[in-house]
C-alpha cells in the first residue's frame, strides 16, 4: 500500500507500461499468489495435527460452531461493504466510500473481537497454545489469519484518514481496489479455514 | 536473422504502448450484482451450517461442505476481486499460486497418510 | 501545475524529515533508489560475505586436513559449518545474483529503473539487516549450529542459547527481502520493457531472472511458515517438530516444508548463473545463442519441475516405496531440460569464432563443472544409491559442483564480462586467466576428492576423524585445493585493485556484445539511456552493428547507414520508467537531460531497520519489539506520504 499512496497528483498521468496493466496491481496479485502458499502451509500443518490432541480438549469439545458461523458471516459480509466502497469511489462519491470503508473496518473489528473471545474461552476450557499439537497448529493458523485481518483494518482506517485529508480522490480509486483485493483474500482464506478446520473435522 | 544485406526495419506494432486498462472498472459489476452475490454467499454459509447439523453420511456431508466452500471461494474471487472481468495475467498469477499450493500440500499430506477420504478434506 | 505546487507544500509541511537530495557522497548511498547503485551495494555486501564464508571454509578444511584435527572444538566447528552453508547460500549466491538482477535487468530491458525503486532500496537494507542479525550471534552466545538445513531436533533442542533463534529469525528477515525484491523484478520484467521488447526478444538472463522471481515468490512463504513454527517450538514450547517425550509433533514436517522451499531454492541459485552463461557464450563465439526459445522454455520447465522433486532430499526418512519411486522419477526427468540447456550451449560454441577471454573461460568452466555436478546429482535420484550416499561427503561433493562449479563460476564469468559496464574499468586479461586456472584446478582438487571420501563412507558434518580410516590422503588434498581457491580469489582482488588504480576508461562495448546495456556509456548515466531504445529483434544491438552479407558472412553495418536511420529511438522521457506509483507521476527530480528520475529517500532504510530491531526484541525484550514495530510503521508512513519524486 505504502508504495502507491499519496503521491496525490490530482490527475495521474497515463503511463504506458508494456502490458498496459498497473504495476501495483500486478504486484498485489503476485503477493496474493505468494500468500496462497503461506496459508497453505498453515492449513496443512493444522490438517496434519488436528487429530493429535492428547493433553488438551479435542476440536469437537471446544468448538462453538454457531458462534463461529456468526463471525464467519460477519467477515463474509465485510467483503460486500468493501466492494460497495470501491463502487462508491468509482462513482466519485467520496463520503459514501468513507462510510463503507468504516463499515468494513467495523465488521472486521467485530470478527477480531469474536476471535479474541473464542481464544479466551478456549484457554479457559484448557486449550492453550502448548496443550497439544492440535492446539498449537490451531492457534498458529487462526492467529496468522487474525493478524492479517488486523493489518487490513489498519489499512482501511488509514484509507479513511487519507480520504478525509483529501488524499484519496476518485482518480486514486485503484488504492481502494488494492486494499479490497487484500481484504477479500483474507476473507476467502477464512472461507477455507471455516470449512476445512471447523466444520469438516468435527462433522459427525 | 537478416537474409540480405539490409532488412527493412519497420517500427513493430508493439511500439505503440498498450492501452492502459483504465476502463477495467467499467466492466466491473454494479452494486446490484454485488448484492446478489453477497446474498448467495450468505445462503451458502447458512446451508453449510444447516448441513452440519443434519444427520447425513459423513462422506456426503464432507462432499457438500467442500462444494459450498469452493463455490463461496470462487464467487468472492470472480466477482468481488473482479478476476472474471480483469486481465488474464492477474488470474494466471493467482491461479498459479493457488494450484501450486493445493498440489504440493496435497502430496505432503498424502505422504503423511492423510487422505480426503479420512476425517478431513 | 498550481495544484502540484500546493501538493508539494503540503507534503513538505508534513514530511517527517526533509527530503534527501544528494546523489553523490557517502550519505547518498544510504538514500539511493538508483537500481545501479543498489546493485553495487548488493555486490559489495555479498562479496564481503563471500570472503567471510570463504574464511569459514578454510577453517573447516584446516580442521579436517589431518586426522584428529585440533584447530576447532566440536562446538565451534558446528557453528562454522552451519554458518558457511547459510552464508554462501543466503548471503552470497542469492544476493550476488541479486546484484546482477538489479544492475542489469532495467538496462537489458531498456528501462530507466525498476518498477518500484524505493521498494528495491528497502529489499537491500532488509537483506543487510538480516545478514548482520544472523552474525550478531557471535557476540550473543554463539552462531547458529544446527546445520543450514535446520533439521529438528538439532534445531529445536538447547533453547537456553539463542543460536538457532538467530537462524529462524535471520532467515525470516532475509525471506522478506527476497520476496519483496522478487515481486519487484517480476513486475519490472512484465511491465517495464522498452518499446518493441517483446517477451521473446528479452535476453535469456532476463528470462532467468523472471523464472527465479516467481520461484522466490512462491517458495519463500513455505519456508516462512516452517521458520515461524520452529521459532514457536523454541520460544513458546510448542511441539510442531518435536516427537520426544510424548510430544505429538513430527520432525519430518519440517523437512517437507524446508525442502518444498529448498528445492526451488536450488534453481534459484543456479538459474541466474545459467542466464549469465547464456549471455556470455554467444558474445565470445560471435554466434547467436543456439535455440533461444528452447533455452528459455527449458528454463521455465526447470522452474515448474523444480516443484515436484523436493522429497528426493528425504529418501532416507522412509517415505514409502510409492513416494520414493515417484520422486526418483521426477528427479530423473528434471535432468532433461537441464541437459537440453547444456547441449544448446555446446551447439552455440560449435563452429563459432571463439575468443577465449576471461569471461568465456569462466563460462566454459561453468558448463564443465556443472555437468559433473548434474551427473552426480542424477546418481542420488536412484533411491538405493541415495541410501548409501546420504549424509556422506559424496553429497557435499555434488552440491559444491553445482553451487560453486555452477553458480560461483557463472557469477565470476558475469563479473569479468560486465565489470567494464559496472565500473568503467577493464580487468586485466592475464590476471583474469591466472584467476581462472587457479580456481578451476583448486576447485577440482578440493571437491573432486569429496566423491571418493563419500563413497569410502566419510560422513558429513563431523568435526574430526580417526587415523587409519583411509580418509587421510584425500582430506589433505582437499585442504590444499581450498587454499588454492583462496589464492585465486586474492588474484581477483588484486586484479580489481589494479584496474581501479589505473585511469583507463573502458569503452562502451569492449566485447562486441549483443544486448542493450552495451549501447549506453560505461558506466551508464543515472537515467541509463538518453533515449529509450526501440527494439526490433532478439540481440537487437548486434543487428544494429552487423548484417549478414550475401555470402552468408557478417558484415559491419556502416555507421550512419540505412540501419542507423532505422534506429531512430522513440523519446519517452515521461518520468514514468520507475516511479513507485506505477500509474505515473508528473512531478519529478531531474536525472539530467530533462529526464525525471525518482528521488532518494530515507524511508526504505528506516523501515528496514525496524525488522532486526523487532527480531532482537522477540529474543530479548518486549520494549524492543515495540521499537521495531514503531520504526517499521514510521518508515512506511513516511514512505506513503512521500511522493516518489520531487
Structure description:
The complex is a heterotrimer of chains A (204), B (121) and C (646). By secondary structure, chain A is mainly α. Chain A has one domain (23-52, 65-202): Cytochrome c oxidase, subunit III, four-helix bundle (Four Helix Bundle (Hemerythrin (Met), subunit A)), CATH 1.20.120. Helix content of chain A is 74%, strand content 0%. Chain A has helices spanning 23-49, 59-62, 65-90, 94-124, 133-164, 173-202. Mean pLDDT of chain A is 91; it is low at 1-14. The longest helix of chain B is centred in the last third of the chain and has 24 residues, at 88-111. Chain B is flat. The termini of chain B are far apart. Chain B contains 4 helices and no strands. In chain B, helix 2 (31-53) runs antiparallel to helix 3 (58-80). Mean pLDDT of chain B is 80; it is low at 1-23 and 117-121. Chain C is an all-alpha fold. Helices cover 63% and strands 2% of the residues of chain C. Chain C has 19 helices and 4 strands. In chain C, the strands form 2 sheets. Chain C has a two-stranded antiparallel sheet with strand order 1-2. A two-stranded antiparallel ribbon of chain C has the order 3-4. The longest helix of chain C has 36 residues, at 74-109. At the A-B interface, helix 1, helix 3 and helix 6 of A face helix 2, helix 3 and helix 4 of B.
Secondary-structure blueprint:
The complex is a heterotrimer of chains A (204), B (121) and C (646).
Chain A (H helix, E strand, L loop, with lengths): L22 H27 L9 H4 L2 H26 L3 H31 L8 H32 L8 H30 L2
Helix pairs in contact in A: 1-5, 1-6, 3-4, 3-6, 4-5, 5-6
Chain B lengths: L23 H4 L3 H23 L4 H23 L7 H24 L10
Helix pairs in contact in B: 2-3
Chain C lengths: L1 H13 L13 H4 L3 H30 L9 H36 L7 H20 L26 H29 L12 H32 L15 H35 L6 H14 L15 H29 L8 H24 L1 H7 L3 H31 L5 H27 L16 H30 L38 H6 E3 L5 E3 L5 H5 L22 E2 L5 E2 L5 H18 L1 H20 L5
Descriptive keywords:
heterotrimer; A: mainly alpha; Four Helix Bundle (Hemerythrin (Met), subunit A); 6 helices; B: 121 residues; mainly alpha; 2 domains
Q: Order of strands in the sheet with the most strands of chain C? A: 1-2
SS class of chain A: mainly alpha
Q: What value does the average pLDDT of chain A take?
A: 91
Encode the helix/strand succession of chain C as letters: HHHHHHHHHHHHHHHHEEHEEHH
Q: What proportion of the residues of chain C is helical, as a percent range? A: 55-70%
**CATH homologous superfamily name of chain A?**
Cytochrome c oxidase, subunit III, four-helix bundle
Strand content of chain A: under 5%
Radius of gyration of chain A: 19 Å
What's the tally of helices of chain C? Answer: 19
Amino acid at each position: 500500500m505504502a508504495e502507491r499512496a499519496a503521491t496525490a497528483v490530482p490527475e495521474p498521468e497515463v503511463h504506458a507500461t508494456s502490458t498496459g496493466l498497473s504495476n501495483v496491481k500486478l504486484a498485489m496479485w503476485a503477493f496474493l499468489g505468494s500468500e496462497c502458499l503461506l496459508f497453505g502451509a498453515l492449513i496443512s500443518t493444522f490438517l496434519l495435527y488436528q487429530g493429535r490432541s492428547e493433553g488438551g480438549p479435542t476440536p469437537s469439545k471446544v468448538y462453538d460452531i454457531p458462534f463461529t458461523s456468526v463471525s464467519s458471516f460477519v467477515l463474509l459480509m465485510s467483503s460486500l461493504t468493501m466492494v460497495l466502497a470501491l463502487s462508491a469511489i468509482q462513482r466519485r462519491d467520496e463520503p459514501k466510500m468513507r462510510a463503507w470503508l468504516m463499515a468494513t473496518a467495523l465488521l472486521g473489528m467485530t470478527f477480531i473481537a469474536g476471535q479474541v473471545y473464542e481464544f479466551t474461552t478456549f484457554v479457559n476450557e484448557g486449550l492453550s497454545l502448548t496443550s497439544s499439537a492440535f492446539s498449537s497448529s490451531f492457534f498458529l493458523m487462526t492467529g496468522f489469519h487474525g493478524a492479517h485481518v488486523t493489518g487490513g483494518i489498519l489499512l482501511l482506517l488509514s484509507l479513511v484518514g487519507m480520504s478525509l485529508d483529501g488524499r484519496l480522490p476518485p482518480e486514486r480509486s485503484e488504492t481502494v481496489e488494492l486494499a479490497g483485493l487484500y481484504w477479500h483474500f483474507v476473507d476467502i482464506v477464512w472461507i477455507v479455514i471455516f470449512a476445512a478446520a471447523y466444520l469438516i473435522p468435527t462433522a459427525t | 536473422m537478416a537474409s540480405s544485406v539490409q532488412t527493412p526495419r519497420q517500427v513493430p506494432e508493439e511500439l505503440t504502448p498498450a492501452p492502459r486498462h483504465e476502463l477495467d472498472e467499467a466492466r466491473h459489476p454494479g452494486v446490484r450484482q454485488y448484492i446478489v452475490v453477497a446474498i448467495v454467499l450468505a445462503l451458502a454459509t447458512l446451508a453449510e451450517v444447516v448441513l452440519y447439523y443434519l444427520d447425513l453420511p459423513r462422506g456426503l456431508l464432507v462432499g457438500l461442505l467442500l462444494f459450498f466452500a469452493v463455490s463461496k471461494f470462487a464467487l468472492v474471487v470472480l466477482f468481488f476481486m473482479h478476476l472474471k472481468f480483469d486481465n488474464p495475467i492477474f488470474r494466471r498469477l493467482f491461479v498459479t499460486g493457488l494450484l501450486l499450493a493445493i498440489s504440493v500440500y496435497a502430496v505432503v499430506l498424502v505422504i503423511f497418510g492423510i487422505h480426503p477420504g479420512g476425517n478431513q478434506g | 501545475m498550481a495544484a502540484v505546487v500546493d501538493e508539494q507544500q503540503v507534503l513538505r509541511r508534513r514530511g517527517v524529515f526533509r527530503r534527501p537530495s544528494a546523489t553523490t557522497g557517502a550519505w547518498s548511498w544510504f538514500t539511493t533508489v538508483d537500481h545501479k547503485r543498489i546493485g553495487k551495494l548488493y555486490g559489495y555486501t555479498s562479496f564481503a560475505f563471500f570472503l567471510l564464508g570463504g574464511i569459514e571454509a578454510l577453517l573447516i578444511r584446516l580442521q579436517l586436513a589431518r586426522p584428529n584435527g585440533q584447530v576447532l572444538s566440536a562446538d565451534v566447528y558446528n557453528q562454522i559449518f552451519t554458518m558457511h552453508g547459510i552464508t554462501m547460500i543466503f548471503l552470497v549466491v542469492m544476493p550476488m545474483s541479486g546484484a546482477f538482477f538489479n544492475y542489469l535487468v532495467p538496462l537489458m530491458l531498456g528501462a530507466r529503473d525498476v518498477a518500484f525503486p524505493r521498494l528495491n532500496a528497502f529489499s537491500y537494507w532488509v537483506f543487510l539487516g538480516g545478514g548482520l542479525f544472523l552474525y550478531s550471534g557471535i557476540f550473543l552466545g554463539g552462531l547458529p549450529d544446527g546445520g543450514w538445513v535446520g533439521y529438528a531436533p538439532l534445531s529445536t533442542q538447547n533453547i537456553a542459547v539463542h543460536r538457532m533463534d538467530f537462524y529462524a529469525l535471520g532467515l525470516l528477515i532475509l525471506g522478506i527481502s527476497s520476496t519483496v525484491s522478487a515481486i519487484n523484478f517480476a513486475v519490472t520484467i512484465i511491465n517495464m520493457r522498452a518499446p518493441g521488447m517483446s517477451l521473446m526478444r528479452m535476453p535469456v538472463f532476463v528470462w532467468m531472472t523472471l523464472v527465479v522471481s516467481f520461484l522466490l515468490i512462491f517458495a519463500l512463504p513455505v519456508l516462512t511458515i516452517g521458520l515461524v513454527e520452529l521459532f514457536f517450538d523454541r520460544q513458546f514450547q510448542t511441539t510442531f517438530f518435536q516427537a520426544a517425550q510424548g510430544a505429538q509433533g513430527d520432525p519430518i514436517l519440517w523437512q517437507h516444508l524446508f525442502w518444498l522451499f529448498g528445492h526451488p531454492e536450488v534453481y534459484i541459485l543456479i538459474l541466474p548463473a545459467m542466464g549469465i552463461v547464456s549471455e556470455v557464450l554467444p558474445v565470445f563465439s560471435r554466434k547467436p545463442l543456439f535455440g533461444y526459445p528452447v533455452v528459455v522454455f527449458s528454463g521455465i520447465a526447470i522452474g515448474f519441475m523444480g516443484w515436484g522433486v523436493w522429497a528426493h532430499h528425504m529418501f532416507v526418512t522412509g517415505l514409502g516405496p510409492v513416494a520414493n519411486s515417484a520422486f526418483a522419477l521426477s528427479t530423473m526427468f528434471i535432468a532433461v531440460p537441464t541437459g537440453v540447456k547444456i547441449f544448446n550451449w555446446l551447439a552455440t560454441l560449435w563452429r563459432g569464432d571463439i575468443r577465449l577471454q576471461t569471461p568465456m573461460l569462466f563460462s566454459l568452466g561453468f558448463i564443465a563443472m556443472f555437468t559433473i555436478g548434474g551427473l552426480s546429482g542424477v546418481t542420488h535420484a536412484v533411491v538405493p544409491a541415495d541410501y548409501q550416499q546420504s549424509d556422506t561427503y559424496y553429497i557435499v561433493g555434488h552440491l559444491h559442483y553445482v553451487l560453486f562449479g555452477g553458480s560461483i563460476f557463472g557469477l565470476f564469468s558475469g563479473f569479468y564480462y560486465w565489470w567494464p559496464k559496472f565500473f568503467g574499468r577493464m580487468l586485466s586479461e592475464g590476471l583474469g586467466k591466472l584467476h581462472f586456472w587457479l580456481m578451476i584446478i583448486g576447485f577440482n582438487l578440493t571437491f573432486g576428492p569429496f566423491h571418493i571420501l563419500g563413497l569410502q563412507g566419510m560422513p558429513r558434518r563431523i568435526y574430526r576423524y580417526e587415523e587409519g580410516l583411509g580418509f587421510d590422503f584425500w582430506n589433505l588434498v582437499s585442504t590444499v585445493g581450498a587454499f588454492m581457491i583462496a589464492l585465486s580469489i586474492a588474484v581477483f582482488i588484486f586484479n580489481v585493485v589494479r584496474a581501479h588504480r589505473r585511469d583507463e576508461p573502458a569503452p562502451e562495448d569492449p566485447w562486441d556484445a549483443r544486448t542493450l546495456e552495451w549501447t549506453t556509456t560505461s558506466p551508464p548515466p543515472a537515467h541509463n539511456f538518453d533515449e529509450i531504445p526501440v527494439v526490433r529483434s532478439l540481440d537487437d544491438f548486434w543487428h544494429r552493428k552487423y548484417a549478414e552479407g550475401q555470402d552468408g558472412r557478417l558484415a559491419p553495418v556502416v555507421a550512419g547507414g540505412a540501419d542507423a536511420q532505422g534506429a531512430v529511438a522513440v523519446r519517452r522521457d515521461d518520468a514514468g520508467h520507475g516511479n513507485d506509483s506505477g500509474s505515473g507521476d508528473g512531478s519529478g527530480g531531474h536525472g539530467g537531460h530533462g529526464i525525471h528520475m525518482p528521488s532518494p529517500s530515507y524511508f526504505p532504510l528506516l523501515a528496514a531497520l525496524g525488522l532486526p530491531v523487532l527480531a532482537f526484541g522477540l529474543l530479548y525484550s518486549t520494549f524492543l519489539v515495540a521499537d521495531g514495530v514503531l520504526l517499521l510503521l514510521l518508515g512506511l508512513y513516511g514512505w506513503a506520504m512521500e511522493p516518489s519524486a520531487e
